[in-house]
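As described in the Methods, two query proteins were run sequentially through the folding procedure within a single session, without resetting any intermediate state between them. The first query and its resulting structure tokens are shown here.
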Amino acid sequence: MIMKPATKKQRRENLRGCRAQALRLLPLLEQIRQRANQIYLARGWAAGRELDDWLQAEREIKAAGIHQ
């Protein structure tokens, strides 16, 4: 099946949808960032585990259901 290219109006609507979704994610990302920083500080500021800290914070925030 060959799809026609999106019209200018469709592209504009898609972009609006993407922006709206990004704006909804900002509070969640900020909560994760803050929690990851708390984890980092609790570990004594030891570098090298930034991804682990982020993933742990993400799990905790989502499991607690405290994200907006």
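Immediately afterward, the second query was submitted; its sequence and tokens are:
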Amino acid sequence: MTSPLLDSAWLEPINSVAPKKLHFHESSKEQCYYPFIVKNRSVPTDTILPHVMYRDVEEAIAWLTRVFGFTEHYHHGDPSGPISGAQMYLGNAYIMLKRARPGCASPEQLGYGTQSLTIFVDDIDSHFQKAKAGGATILEEPHETVYGERQYAATDQDGHHWLFSKHARDLSPEQWGATLTKH
């Protein structure tokens, strides 16, 4: 049995995983087994995908593109209204932008930050110069951390805290004073 919902371009073979049992319709008596998972090109599954609140998503897309070098993957919303959400990426890092609605707010609206987002880039120094020239508020100049990263910190126009980082040295956690949890 084949389903029009399962397009071969969206399927990814998984050889090391037991076949998945799929029901195509509640009233169907047939069960089909497929040794794959469905791959969705709209949502990456091998990473944490933060949803970041902005007062104006369209403005955030433009700012994050111009200042931090992000690329828009897609946006969505009512065609007659403002953009309500978007997905953007920089290198291999993806984020979702969401319009702050009642009950949600950006750090600028709250008056404080609630998280920090770390994005890895190839050239910290040129990224820093572009962000600084573009109007990012610089919180930390580029420096090497005790754990072996070269990074800088900045906030965007809505107060979100960003760390841009690159591996400078390969250090084990013990080399810089962390304690590994043994499992």
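Residues 1-28 have pLDDT under 50 and may be disordered. We note this only descriptively and draw no conclusion about the first query from it.
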